[in-house]
Design brief:
The protein contains seven helices and 34 strands. It is of the alpha/beta class and 601 residues long. An eight-stranded parallel beta barrel has the order 22-23-24-25-26-29-31-32, surrounded by four helices. A six-stranded antiparallel beta sheet has the order 4-3-5-10-7-8, with no helix packed on it. Strands 1-9-6-11-2 form a five-stranded antiparallel beta sheet. Helix 4 runs parallel beside helix 5. The structure holds (2S,3S,4S,5R)-3,4,5-trihydroxy-6-oxo-oxane-2-carboxylic acid (GCB). (2S,3S,4S,5R)-3,4,5-trihydroxy-6-oxo-oxane-2-carboxylic acid (GCB) binds next to loops. (2S,3S,4S,5R)-3,4,5-trihydroxy-6-oxo-oxane-2-carboxylic acid binds next to loops.
Length: 601
């Protein structure tokens, strides 16, 4: 069943007085919104006493009731309104020292007043909550969302009150073997309401979602769809791109769905000229405005073609970690700092590792002309045989694509990172690839994979997953986990597939300011040495179409305890978490400048 049908079915089933989790509302910032960001009341609940009773049964009188004693004799053991404050958006770990390593449940509460308007629906939209969120309004459950890095929303039109609404979210970031990601990762498990929370207002029938991109293989044919939600979903709709003098009309069908297709004479988006158009989707009752760019993308043998021209992806990997203050990044300012550093490095491409980053990153990448690899946290050792794990991964993939499918900067959807070759894993990842292709036929699909040694000198890339992706991503740490830097000099690379290769990770670790000779681990000189030998090797790989050193900036990791050196940071950054550039930064920068000379992108 198409999501829109599921949604209509649920609407009918639940009746209009119930809360509903509906498909994602596209582009919330293009609508009327009311921010719920700021200080929220919070209760730390390591034993989940606010959720389970003492027999470990879900309690009918959990904290979500937000109860108050009605008489002086009443026994109620919690009180949101005198509890601690935490800032939203923001991870909890970096807001209070005792929460740095906390993994468990914290309850969040926000009170708000709301003036209901006629013919208006209202939704609560969460940019992200890591990892499991149970959401309640005025004591009633709106629903649950799993996955720490994708948005979700619920309709609250018929539950919201004029005054003193109590919005409560139980956020649980306990790691689980069957979750996505699973128990081990090389990044901090930042918990909480890590992204913006907003009320989104729409007319009774509104434009819920749209896909407006160039058709694969065409430089002027726009193809996509528009989906309405409401009680009058068979309507005339129009798509306007004023600057390109486009105004086209379509009709939605009985399910509120319209395919759109038309020609437009467009200036294509590229890193050199990141042209975006104002695009307006209008119905009889609603109007949404977006900024959308258009470009073509294809692979041909081992080439990647952007707007028909071969490109080399001068990339860098980025974690969603906030420069200077630490913790999860969540603001436009964070995005601008990170992406400006990438630009300064000479990058035209970023790999947003290892999960979907906040929407600002994508919006700013669109504006700055930086191509994006976006991935889901199918990382290392997922439970490949568990159907619920697959469903969860598929859902996170769908939500990532739902949010970012109109962002021209996104050129690659990645389904996994460094997963071990095997049948169950292959079946799992093939399903993810099918899902990605069914939702979006315009992007390239990839995954970061591994290589192996055929003999001392020969690297072979032949992961069977390679057959199903458009572009092969490979992580290798020659000179760091694998021998000394000069080992790279003697290596020859072979690939089983006639496809483009991106070296999606390589690098070494050094805290900024730690100096020594080029063979002393943890020094900037050693890191620089790794990069020098890497570049010598990379330049000799004929099918290489992109490089993404690991990583732009140092980031917190529980796997990195070495005192005085790591102190629970992965120090492979080209830049420190305080913005200081290490020697290796300049090695990469001069390589990218050299590449840039002969290229238009
Ligand atoms: C990898 C992982 C990345 C790690 C990195 C490292 O292969 O993909 O998540 O952080 O290596 O530093 O070891």
């Amino acid at each position: 069943m198409r999501p829109v049908l599921v949604c209509i079915f649920l609407l009918a089933l639940l009746g209009s007085t119930q809360a509903q989790q509906i498909d994602l509302i596209a582009n919330p910032d293009g609508r009327k919104t009311i921010s719920l960001d700021g200080q929220w009341r919070t209760i730390i609940d390591p034993y989940e006493s606010g959720y389970y009773d003492y027999r470990y049964q879900p309690s009918a009188n959990g904290y979500f009731k937000d109860a108050k004693p009605r008489s002086k004799s009443d026994l109620i053991e919690y009180d949101f309104d005198t509890s601690e404050l935490l800032k939203v958006p923001g991870d909890w770990n970096t807001q209070k020292e005792r929460l740095l390593l906390y993994e468990g449940t914290i309850w969040y509460k926000k009170s708000f007043d709301y003036q209901r308007k006629e013919n208006t629906r209202v939704f609560v939209y969460f940019g992200g909550a890591n990892y499991l969120a149970d959401v309640y309004l005025n004591g009633q459950k709106l629903g649950r969302h799993e996955g720490g890095f994708t948005p979700f929303n619920f309709e609250i039109t018929n539950l919201v009150r004029d005054a003193n609404n109590s919005l409560i979210v139980k956020v649980d970031n306990k790691r689980r073997r069957d979750a996505v990601p699973t128990l081990i990762t090389d990044w901090w498990n930042y918990g909480g309401l890590t992204r913006q929370v907003q009320l989104v207002e729409t007319p009774t029938t509104f434009v819920q979602d749209y896909f407006i991109q160039l058709q694969k293989g065409s430089r002027q044919r726009i193809a996509g769809w528009v989906k309405l939600n409401g009680d009058k979903i068979s309507q005339k709709i129009s798509i306007r791109i004023p600057e390109a003098r486009i105004s086209k009309s379509f009709s939605t069908d009985a399910n509120g769905f319209a395919r759109i297709e038309f020609d437009a004479n467009l200036t294509l988006w590229s890193p050199d000229n990141p042209k975006l158009y104002e695009v307006v989707v209008e119905t009889e009752t609603d109007r949404v405005q977006d900024e959308i760019g258009f470009r073509t993308l294809e692979t041909k043998g081992t080439e990647i073609l952007l707007n028909g021209r071969p490109i080399f992806l001068r990339g860098v990997c980025i974690h969603e970690e906030a420069p200077f203050r630490g913790g999860r990044a969540y603001s436009r300012e964070d995005a601008l700092t990170l992406l400006s550093w990438a630009k300064e490095l000479g990058a035209n491409f970023v790999r947003l590792a290892h999960y979907p980053h906040n929407e600002f990153m994508l919006r700013e990448a669109d504006r700055m002309g930086i191509m994006v690899w976006s991935e889901i946290p199918v990382y290392w050792t997922i439970l490949w045989e568990n159907p619920a794990t697959l469903e969860n991964a598929q859902n996170q993939l769908s939500e990532m694509i739902a949010r970012d499918k109109n962002r021209v900067a996104v050129i690659i959807w990645s389904v996994a990172n460094e997963t071990p070759v095997g049948d169950a894993r292959l079946a799992f990842l093939k399903k993810l690839i099918e899902r990605a292709r069914s939702l979006d036929s315009t992007r390239m699909i990839s995954a970061a994979m591994e290589r192996h040694y055929v003999d001392d000198k020969t690297q072979m890339i032949d992961d069977p997953l390679g057959e199903f992706v458009d572009v092969f991503g490979c992580n290798e740490y020659v000179g760091w986990y694998d021998g000394l830097p000069e080992k790279a000099d003697g290596l020859t690379w072979k690939m089983k597939y006639q496809k483009p290769l991106i070296m999606t990770e390589f690098g070494g670790e050094a805290p900024y300011g730690n100096h020594g000779d080029a063979l002393t681990r943890w020094t900037e000189e050693y890191q620089e040495n790794v990069y020098q030998h890497q570049l010598g090797m990379l330049k000799r790989i004929p099918f290489l179409r992109g490089t993404c050193p690991w990583i732009l900036m140092d980031f917190r990791s529980p796997r990195r305890p070495l005192p005085g050196v790591q102190d629970f940071y992965n120090r492979k950054g080209l830049i420190s978490d305080q913005g200081q550039k290490k020697k290796a930064f300049y090695i990469m920068q001069s390589y990218y400048r050299e590449l840039q000379k002969g290229s238009q992108n």
